[in-house]
Write a structure and sequence with these properties.
- There is one protein chain.
- The protein has about 725 residues and is α+β, with helices and mostly antiparallel strands.
- It contains 23 helices and 15 strands.
- The protein has a five-stranded mixed sheet, with helices on one face. A two-stranded antiparallel sheet has the order 1-2. A two-stranded antiparallel ribbon has the order 3-4.
- Strand 3 and strand 4 form a beta hairpin.
- It starts with 12 loop residues before the first helix and ends with a strand.
Length: about 725
Amino acid sequence: MDKSWMVEDRHTEKYINGVKGFIQFAFSHSAKGNTILCPCKKCLNCSWLEASHVLEHLVCEGFVNGYRRWEYHGEASSSLESGRDAHVQQFDEVEENDDLEEDCDELAGMMRDMRHDFGDLSDVEDEGDCREPTNESDPFKKLVGLATLAGVVTSGEYGCPKCHLLTCSRWLTNGKKTCYMDHRRFLVRNHRFRTIDKAFFDGNVESRTAPEPLTGEEVDALTRNMETVFGKDPTGKQTIRKRKRGDPPQIFKRRSIWFRLPYWKDLLQPHNIDAMHIEKNVCDNIVNTLLGINGKTKDNTNSRRDLELFNIRTDLHPVPVGKDTFDLPPASYSMSPELKRLFCQVLKGAMFPHGYASDIRKNVHVKEKKIAGLKSHDCHVLLQQLFPLAVRKTLPEGVSAALIRVSRFFKKIYAPVIRISDMEKLEEEIAETLSILETIFLPSFFDMMVHLMVHLPLQVRLGGPVKYSNMFPIERFLCTLKGYVRTKSHPEGSIAEGYIFDECLNFCARYFERCETRISRLVRNDDPEPMSSSMPFFNGGGRYLAGKYTITLDRNAWLQAHRYVLFNYDNITPYLSKHLEYLSSTGQRNALQIDKIHHDEFHEWLRLHVAHLVDSGKRMAREEGSSEEARTYGDVREEQVARNTEKMKSLGLAVISSEMKALKKAAGKPKKKRALEVAIPESTRVLRSQSVMHESDNEEDADNEQELEENEGNKITILTP
């Protein structure tokens, strides 16, 4: 077919006659009623128009770039190859960029098809379920991107994209939703949950094996003959297609456009499951269920009535107390109002360094005993860092242990460095964890997002660490782009204009001097005048924000502070090595045992070593005894604590809170971050002065000694949460 007219001027007779011939060809091969898809630069094959409008658009706007093969208008793929090769030389003489357009023809076609896929979001209802829909918020909508790109069904009876036709699902008649359970089949063959402990589940022996995901070749064969129609219905109606009773199950809605790539069917992992949204939905399910938030909890009357229909967990069946009124027996995860308030108070008191996380405290309402408005990253921090602390004090040991295993699972999934053996072990652990959760929570708890946890280790094993496929940077950038929108009728133009404006500001800000710009603006925790320190080996970087008062440390707290200083002061390093050599010479061979003895006995060995040096006539600076009193401050503003908490900042040391329990007990229960000034042990001060004297001349000895004498407090600052 001669297409040389497509590069002619759009107002010539040859071009207009060619357009008319194209319209006749399209109506004979791909018409829908009296309309066809308009391939102009404005419509991009997305709008169904009549012939007169298509002719007007193609004359005024022209064809979309690269549309040499009329694939949306009935031209077969095989008929193009010879024709395109025959006309490439003609196009080279007429238009300089034709070679590039011909090479990019395939990619442009795929991107246009993706545009149709994202534009055609009306068909997100499951085709494999003929039962009535639920009115609850559907978490499966989070998988709409996977459903659009891969063309798979992501909800309903066969909603798992990995388990396909072997998905274990149950319809909850009262809850009007589908749950996904029976995770015992993912366990190893000889696991006791399959046989011995069957009474804790449904009473049946589980002999099935875990389903194998479909390979790319199998998906290619299943979708090869599927007819995919792109674009929206010209009438504007949203059609919801459902599977009729008796029809075979359907796990694919359409054939993915990516199968046009010759290597796509050979990929081991063509699509990723979004770990970020899985983590957020799991966190929301757990928190809402534990706190019993109305409308969001997975434990309600309908969930208990479904237990009756399944004839499981008889101790949790609802007890009728009147007409349409039931009494719900407490479950193992049920908390009293006091425990719910304690749970919220633990989360309310959490504070993080600047830049680590948002202020979660504003989303925690202690009086109402609920948590609302958490973002994806809030759930990320809550589930991995705070959740294990909160459930230990409020839930029974069995329930808290299972939830802590969930927290540990996501920690390992998000590890920056992974090992294949660790992921294989994690596959077994998460299957066991989900099986334990089935004995604790109700079936309504196990939606698709909870089930997809069992497939994450395999995805990480094939695709590498989660950080390379995470949605956090994408979501944040999309949020930035949405902020550029000022005219909602033209969002694309607003985004383009706002992005260019922001780039111009960044460029110009680099050349402005003597004025504050986004580049020269001080950071949030910057302190232009750090508090001076009389201890030169603890560099200052902060200042106190509240008054101080004195407390007395017990022996354990003082010893912990003493030990921390010794192990983190550079001038003590030679003595640390000397003590390790001494322990090795005593016959100790176990490295763990040497480290334990080194940690427990080094301070006493150092005291005796200093006493021996003094008795042998070594010149030492005159020192006063160390004090067990410490000064505490209501709040401290520290600098760069988010950048490096392991370094000595803010005139002190960042001490792990678990190591300072005794110190907190002595100081009471502070509501804010506290800073404690602890006296430096005598042996440390002596060794410090000794190292200074060995490097100095005799004329400086007196100055060093006087400096130590005038160092009035000889304190360090310890930051505690």
